[in-house]
Design goal:
- The chain is an alpha/beta fold.
- It contains seven helices and ten strands.
- A hairpin with a 2-residue loop joins strand 1 (14-15) and strand 2 (18-19).
Length: 200
């Protein structure tokens, strides 16, 4: 709740008319955090999948990569009881920025890698005047010390990995502050890059 003012100022607290910081929606954020943390720490998953959503329509740009096939193969995680359908991809009907940040923070606090399902290019990162969700995820991962590396095989693409121990001080206020910082003065451009190219 201490981060509420930052989310309000950024216009990210209310999604589709629902205030993310009011019951029961704030509870959803906690349940997602708890479920994700348990999944990461139980070794039920090897990492989390970050990226934009892909509808699968013909002719759609190839940058956004989370679709139904990926969800089926890598399974999903949501706010339900831990241990039920634990997977690497956040998928909930009660989604909000706060819920997404909860999922990301659970991964950061666990120190797991984030595999990138989308390319790091402008159409996936930024739409004036805001970061897209994938851009927000990368802004926070970069700010929390993650680095871009290639997967063990070319087919696995890029991953954001944490070379140092997990930063347990990463908090919701930092998530929103990082996003706001990367939206200013085209700072988001440091998130762009060719596949395998590290952040500067």
């Amino acid at each position: 709740m201490e981060a509420r003012d930052l989310y309000d100022k950024a216009g990210t607290a209310v999604i589709n008319g629902r205030d993310s910081f009011e019951t029961p929606w704030v509870d959803v954020a906690w349940w997602v955090y708890d479920s994700t943390l348990r999944a990461c720490r139980s070794n039920a998953i090897e990492g989390l999948i970050a990226g934009g959503l892909r509808s699968g329509r013909p002719g759609e740009p190839g940058g956004a990569g989370i679709d139904d096939i990926l969800r089926e193969n890598l399974k999903t995680i949501d706010e339900r009881v831990p241990g039920v359908d634990q997977g690497a991809i956040l998928h909930t009907r009660n989604w909000s920025i706060l819920v997404n940040d909860s999922w990301l923070l659970a991964g950061v606090h666990s120190g797991v890698p984030f595999y990138l399902a989308s390319e790091r290019r402008q159409e996936n990162l930024y739409l004036v005047p805001k970061l897209k969700v994938f851009g927000r995820e990368l802004a926070n991962l970069r700010s929390f010390g993650y680095q871009i590396v290639m997967g063990a095989q070319e087919a696995t693409g890029e991953a954001a990995v944490l070379p140092e121990p997990a930063d347990l001080k990463a908090r919701f206020g930092a998530c929103q502050a990082n996003a706001t910082e990367y939206e200013a003065d085209e700072n988001w451009r440091v998130l762009e890059g060719r596949i395998g190219q590290p952040w500067d």
